[in-house]
Amino acid sequence: MADSSIMNQTGPISFNKKRPGSDEFDHDNLGLTKKTSMNNPSIISWEDPAGSLAKCRHEFGEHGGVNMSIEASATFTVMEPETMGRMFNGELGPDRDFFIYSRHFNPTVLNLSRQLAALEGTEAAYCTASGMSAIASILMQLCSSGGHVVASRTLYGGTHALLSHFLPRTCNITTSFVDVRDLDSVKEAIVQGRTNVLYFESISNPTLTVANVPELCRIAHDKGVVVVVDNTFAPMVLSPARLGADVVVHSISKYISGGADIIAGAVCGPASLVNSMMDLHQGTLMLLGPTMNPKVAFELSERIPHLGLRMKEHCNRALAFATRMKKLGLKVIYPGLEEHPDHALLKTLANKDYGFGGILCVDMETEERANRLMNILQNFAQFGFMAVSLGYYETLMSCSGSSTSSELNPDEKALAGISPGLVRMSIGYVGTLEQKWSQLEKALSMVHDFGLAHKN
Length: 456
Hints:
One of its GO terms (biological process) is transsulfuration. Helices cover 35% and strands 13% of the residues. The protein is an alpha/beta fold and 456 residues long.
């Protein structure tokens, strides 16, 4: 169903054939229906993601509720038998309120997808069952057998394993890993006519290096290569598509969800690309079936309106703790600190007023020291929890080398700059800042007493 259109942030990509009787609700081909319509949104802001979200079309409930209804159906009926054939031929689609099956398009999931497109400033988006399914789907859509990816050597462990092990074995898609801070090495690694994708994280997991998105996009586009950026660490803070990226992927499970209770992902990009991913014959999202449950989509759509407020507090706390921990002698890595090598770059790229990210790292040098620190922080000071993931309202801590980056071998970790004792902290916002600092300070005094701290 390559010609069937998907919803973008201001409504669907329009299609000229209308559903019978729908003329009075057409509203300039924005696909606004009688029960879910709102006025035609004005032009999306390209400066502030919160402004874009505020201008995103609002879906009302079936009976006029301020919250949208959940379309929980797996399949959808038609009024005339001929209609189904036209739907499968791509003549009629969700832009005219025609739905076939929720693995293909679901109205509730489409609404969340519109919000993600508005958040990232892309034409379109589609939400998936997990972040990894979003990443795998876009890479397999853009690369055929024999394809080539150039990727950052510092990536989430699951993504690294997908690129270094799974895709070569199953799809004959290979990857060259490079230091994306070295623009010359990126340029050399991209082979014009062979390389399909340049892939990197806007802020790297877990080392917190900041990608020079505009320059990397310029290099890739000069050689006809598509740029895919994972923005999981920096929603609201950075807008890669507005800096030149073609596609933005997310693990919605993290900051966008905020509750550590949902697994979900998203692909944000050009409408033509997202539509191609839903094609009945060649689309990875359609054929691999990483379908989001509409009940999950509803939950997430209710959380996005306060994402900006949450991100600002995550970032505010992270900067405060990083600054104070640095003064106490811990080896802190945080791009909001002036001594961080990418501090000036992030200041030039970041959206105004959203800070420098909600994650900081403390390098304890050895795994043993890292584990002792986390044990004190959780079990003696109640500062946070030893758990993977990020974006939760409580602080989450993990030793990256033995957890979320464990898929990398020792040499790969060394090249990525991942110390055996690197503790990644996703800073939460519960309690007052001073209350949480008191808990952290208590823990750090115990760290000094046990001889675990070291000066920079």
